[in-house]
Amino acid sequence: MREVSKKSKRAVVLLSGGLDSSTLAYYVKSIGYDLYAITFDYGQRSRRELNSAEEIGRILGVKEHKFIKINLREIGGSALTDKMEVPKFSRLRMEHSQIPITYVPARNTIFLSISLAYAEVVGADAIFYGANCLDYSGYPDCRPEYIDAFREVARLGTKRGVEGSPIRIETPFLFYDKSQIVKKALELNVPIEKTWSCYEDGEEPCGKCESCLLRKKGIEEAKRSFR
Ligand SMILES: [Zn+2]
């Protein structure tokens, strides 16, 4: 008689190729999910992160890896997608505003919406998203109240939700700082050197943008706490 296969637990993971989302993917695998990775080629300056996403997905043995192209350059309005310079120091804010110019207008809503469609199609129970609100407090779409609002979208706007089993939106790193994410990465044996956090493109990370600086600070702090 053929063995009846147990239904697998499936999760969609937003995988950008950066340290946070790569660590998240390792974490989701470690708690027993089959991974359906989704990576967005949205016209970001950093093309290198797409290679990292692909490589991490391959190492992790994801069940499927979707690369979705949406050209947010046509909309612009961000230093990551438009002809603006990426700030070369930390915590640079636009004048009269608390929002950094590396904010990409409504990006996470766009990503989560497409991930929700994907999750519904592959029968995933949850979407895992590596937002954290501590280090990037300037981004409106990384805040806990935003995530809660999107849970409502998932509940009200999908067939699954209406039928009583809404797709969960999970953000386990929401209150982690960078050094806690690095510690998690070390614990899970994430190949940190294969991830790409820099906002710029190139052979090597620039070492000067906010994302590079945060990553460096996180790694240094994590190392110190191991001493
Ligand atoms: Zn950089």
Describe the overall structure.
The protein is of the alpha/beta class and 227 residues long. The protein has a single domain, classed as HUPs (Rossmann fold), CATH 3.40.50.620. It contains seven helices and five strands. The protein has helices at 19-30, 48-60, 107-122, 144-156, 159-162, 178-187, 210-226; strands at residues 10-14, 34-41, 64-69, 126-128, 168-170. The chain binds zinc ion. Zinc ion binds next to helix 7.
Global geometry: globular
Strands of the widest sheet, in order across it, are 3-2-1-4-5
The level of helicity is 25-40%
Number of helices: 7
Domains, number: 1
* Coarse structural class: alpha/beta
| Molecules bound to protein | zinc ion
**Major β-sheet annotation:** 5 strands, parallel
Instruction: Just give the CATH class.
Output: Alpha Beta
Q: What distance separates the N and C termini?
A: 55 Å
CATH fold description: Rossmann fold
Q: What is the chain-wise order of helices and strands?
A: EHEHEHEHHEHH
Radius of gyration, in Å, reads: 18 Å
Tell me how many strands there are.
Answer: 5
CATH architecture: 3-Layer(aba) Sandwich
How would you name the CATH homologous superfamily?
HUPs
